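Chain A, query sequence.
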Amino acid sequence: MKSVLYLVDVDRLESWTRYRNGLCDTCVAHCCTMPTDVRLPDLVRLGLVDPFEAEHEAPKQIAKRLTKAGVIEHFNFRHELFTLARRSSGDCHLLDAKTRRCTVYAQRPDTCRKHPQVSSRPGYCPYQARDRS
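Chain A, predicted structure.
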């Protein structure tokens, strides 16, 4: 089976589609292949960080633990942003590879909640229709 991830280049903003309601229903979730920066409250909502830990532990220490566990791939100390880990395919580790749906949709990070209003190209997304075969 040919991977759909290479049919659309998420880095070419001019190839993105103007977002409209319902577009996600038929998409292969290319937005879930882009780096996802999250903040500490997102990690608490996802259940990856305990609220007590978030309040009493330094973000740097939390980042060290989450990096070791393979949950994040980068921590921006200056802005206290954690970049979620991705699989070797480029998918967010929270994305179901088969269904192309978020496994934590109700708890998803603010970055995902606000996409595509807040993105590299606001109001647009790297949409690609699912193969119906």
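The longest strand covers residues 72-76. The radius of gyration is 16 Å.
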